[in-house]
Structure formats: structure tokens, C-alpha cells
Amino acid sequence: MYNPTVNKKTRAKYVLEEMEKLFPDSSSELRNWETDFQFLLCIILSAQTTDLQVNKVTHNLFAKYPDPASLSEAEVGEVEKILSSINYYRTKSKNIVNAAKVVKTRFHGRVPRSVEKLIEIPGVGLKTANVYLNSMYQANQGVGADTHVMRVSRRLGFTDSRDPRKVAIALQKLYPKKDWYRVTALFVLYGRYYCKARVKPENSKCIFKEFCTHCSGLDPYS
Predict the structure, then answer these.
(1) CATH class of the region 6-23+141-209
(2) What are the C-alpha distances in Å from 9 to residues 23, 157, 170, 211?
(3) Where are the domains of the chain?
(4) pLDDT value at position 27?
(5) Other beta carbons within 10 Å of 158
(6) pLDDT for residue 7
(7) Looking at residue 114, what DSSP letter applies?
(8) Residue-wise over 185-203: b if at least 16 C-beta within 10 A, else e?
(9) Is the separation of the CB atoms in 173 and 161 below 8 Å?
(10) What's the mean per-residue pLDDT of the chain?
(11) Alpha-carbon Rg for the chain in angstroms
């Protein structure tokens, strides 16, 4: 039973425990990938796009361009044809071809395993780097604050910032470093299925109604 008088860190712990009950297997819902490079591409493509949409195009993408060497030689227009059903496909097509070139030449065909080096790759920002490292290796180099993580964090009172970096920092202060990969995965899933952006409070499936600002009508996203 939740006690509304507890401090923020205790509430944060409670939230993570309850989310884990909802999603005991909090692995990524991105499919069709077999290598670390392919998984990184999936995450790049998933920006402002559902995993389901990404999954529809990656089978053909990886069949034709399975590795950095083949994709680095691809014509951007040919990649656009494969990705045309996802949001921002032109920008993403250019990014992943350039990403392949960087991984091939600068990193000798191997995806790096540090945030600092990952963000040197076109299409990879801090959020993408941390989502990749946490999902792939449980690396805990940082929390990946995508739109779902940001929305859930704000509605549950863990931050009032709209800056992904500041949201990530707020969560990193609330949670032990060993849990950062779990925070990334579980907040994403909770945002995707329980804390949706446009759902009305009366129709929400939120399990944290006692302190959720959206459910109380004080939604910072409204």
C-alpha cells in the first residue's frame, strides 16, 4: 500500500517496484535484429516512431544491408524506399548510412560501448546512446530519457523539466546507478501502455493515481 507522506526517493523505489510487476520481462520490443549494429539502427529509427512501425521495415533493411560495410556503400535513395513508411524516413535514411560509414571507418566495424564514443555516430544522441547501452548491456552509464520517460517522470512528480538531459539527471539522482537500465526500460513501457500522452484522466490505466498529476488534473503536459 502506498503511503502519500513518503519522500521522493521512497516513492521512486515504490514506482519502480510496481512497474516491474507489470513488466517482469522489460526487454526491448524492437525485433528483427541480430547484431549490436542492427540493434543500434533500430533505436535510431525508433525516434518519433513506434517500435511496431520500425519492426515492419527492419526485416527488409537488414536483409539487404546486414552490416556497416554494406550499408556504408548504400545509396540513400534506396534506403529511403525501404524506410518510407516510418516518420522522418529521409533524415533517418541519411543518418543510418552515415552511421554505417563512421562505424566502419572510425570504429573498425564495431559499435563502441561508451556514451562518449556512441554520440560521435550520426543519428545517435545522449538518449539513444543510453537506451542502446542499457538495453544491450545493462551498462548503467545513464538513464535514456525519451518522450515516454519524460512524460512519466513529470506526471509522477520526479521532475518539472522538459529538457531530456535534466530529466535523465533527476532520475539518476533518485535511483541507484545499478537500476538505471531498469528505469529506462520500465518507464518506456509504462509510458507506452499505461501513461499515454493523449488519454483522458478518467480513461487512464494509471496505477499511481494517488500522486499522478495527470490523473488529478494538474498534468504538466496539458
Answers:
(1) mainly alpha
(2) 21, 11, 11, 14
(3) 6-23+141-209, 34-135
(4) 85
(5) 22
(6) 87
(7) S
(8) bbbbbbbbebbbeeeebee
(9) no
(10) 94
(11) 18
Neighbours of 7 (CB within 10 A): 7
Grid coordinates standing for 62?
Answer: 537488414
Distance of CA 200 to the CA centre of its chain: 24
Residue with cell 495527470: 214
pLDDT at 222: 47
The dihedral through the CA atoms of 139, 142, 146, 149 has a sign that is positive
Give the C-alpha distances (Å, rounded to integers) separating 193 from 17, 30, 71, 87.
17, 15, 34, 20
Nearest Cα residue to 142 out of 151, 133, 152, 155: 133
Spatial separation of the C-alpha atoms in residues 160 and 172, rounded to whole Å:
15
Kindly tell me the burial class for residue 54, based on how many C-beta atoms sit within 10 Å of its own C-beta (0-12, 13-18, 19 or more): buried
Q: Collect the ranges in the chain with pLDDT lower than 70.
A: 1-5, 219-222
- The CATH homologous superfamily for domain 34-135 is Hypothetical protein; domain 2 (1.10.340.30)
